Inverse folding.
């Protein structure tokens, strides 16, 4: 197996597992099913190009069986790609009808290719495209029929991909542009091969580098196509991982502040859910849940202790929130005053809230103030 083939296999089967997981989670999604079946057909065709599999399949089913199965699977991948665009552009009822009509040229091509392989002499079935004798009618019909359907279906897919890419937003638009570039390469490679097949059928001679170049273009376009299909999902997953990592770090950075407040106000702790699950500590939902719970508990604790903080800081100006540094300097004393049973000397006052120009009103700007308070509190002790 060449390095390019190995890379293709890794990208292809990794993408197949990814889309398969999505289908299991949402089996009713017609678009997702079409993408999965496209990937599945492409993945199924890959082993039939390996020498060891070719020898095994041809030994069991006759010469040329592996080549025929590989090409039919590739035709199936292109067919399901077309189904994806049909489902994208049509309502469910119309899409089902169009998908059935779309299957007609696919089935006809598969039958013609199978018949062409059946009438081809056994000695001519095992050749590759580069070494096949196109003057043999069965060989020429096999390659011409499969190539014609591929060129037609890929060109239609390219048209719809370019159209959707213009309307989509990132990262979907980026993925669609990658798919469009790959499809353009596939269409060009398939059209060139059709022309070369006709030249060789008529007895002409085609330089070997031209055939190799067309194959190389196709080999490069396939992994690019797969990468474009999975790119939007990977970008979304990467953003989720970054958010998971960020929430985990903030959770630990707020620990000093939370521990001080939790000792004073244990009754404010929110109900713990999912704590009995073994992997809850590492699951995305578990990390996000603990992050939001800790932020809320810290903020609730600061609201309750804020009258004591205002007294210790010698200010009760509700219009001037206590900064994180001021609150941290007096928090321990305020907590001791509360623990001793002293009455709250005033109403709650703002503590560690973003001032004008510091925040945009989002939760993140509020959390940054809590982190400043927590880290300042740690640095003082």
């Amino acid at each position: 197996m060449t390095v390019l083939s190995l890379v293709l296999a890794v990208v292809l089967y990794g993408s197949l597992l990814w889309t398969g997981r999505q289908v299991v989670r949402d089996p009713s999604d017609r678009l997702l099913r079409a993408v999965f079946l496209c990937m599945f057909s492409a993945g199924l065709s890959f082993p039939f190009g390996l020498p060891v599999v070719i020898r095994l399949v041809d030994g069991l089913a006759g010469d040329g069986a592996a080549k025929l199965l590989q090409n039919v699977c590739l035709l199936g991948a292109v067919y399901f790609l077309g189904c994806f665009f049909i489902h994208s552009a049509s309502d469910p009822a119309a899409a089902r009808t169009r998908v059935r009509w779309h299957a007609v040229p696919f089935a006809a091509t598969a039958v013609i290719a199978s018949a062409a392989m059946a009438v081809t002499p056994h000695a001519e079935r095992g050749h590759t495209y580069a070494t096949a004798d196109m003057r043999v009618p069965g060989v020429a019909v096999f390659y011409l029929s499969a190539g014609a359907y591929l060129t037609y279906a890929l060109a239609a897919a390219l048209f719809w991909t370019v159209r959707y890419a213009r309307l989509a937003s990132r990262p979907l638009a980026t993925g669609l542009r990658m798919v469009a570039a790959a499809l353009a390469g596939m269409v060009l490679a398939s059209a060139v091969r059709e022309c070369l097949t006709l030249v060789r059928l008529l007895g002409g001679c085609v330089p070997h580098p031209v055939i190799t170049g067309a194959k190389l273009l196709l080999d490069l376009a396939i992994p690019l196509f797969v990468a474009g299909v999975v790119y939007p999902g990977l970008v979304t997953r990467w953003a989720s991982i970054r958010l998971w990592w960020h929430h985990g770090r903030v959770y630990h950075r707020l620990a000093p502040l939370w521990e001080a407040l939790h000792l004073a106000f244990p009754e404010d702790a929110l109900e713990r859910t999912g704590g009995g699950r073994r992997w809850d500590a590492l699951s995305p939902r578990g990390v996000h849940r603990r992050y939001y719970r800790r932020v809320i508990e810290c903020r609730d604790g600061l609201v309750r202790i804020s009258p004591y903080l205002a007294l210790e800081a010698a200010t009760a100006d509700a219009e001037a929130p206590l900064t994180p540094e001021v609150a941290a300097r007096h928090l321990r004393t305020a907590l001791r005053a509360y623990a001793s049973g002293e009455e709250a000397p005033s109403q709650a006052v703002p503590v560690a809230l973003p001032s004008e120009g510091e925040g945009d009103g989002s939760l993140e700007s509020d959390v940054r103030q809590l982190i400043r308070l927590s880290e300042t509190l740690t640095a003082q002790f």
The mean pLDDT is 83. The radius of gyration is 32 Å. The chain is about 75% helix and 0% strand. The longest helix spans residues 208-253.
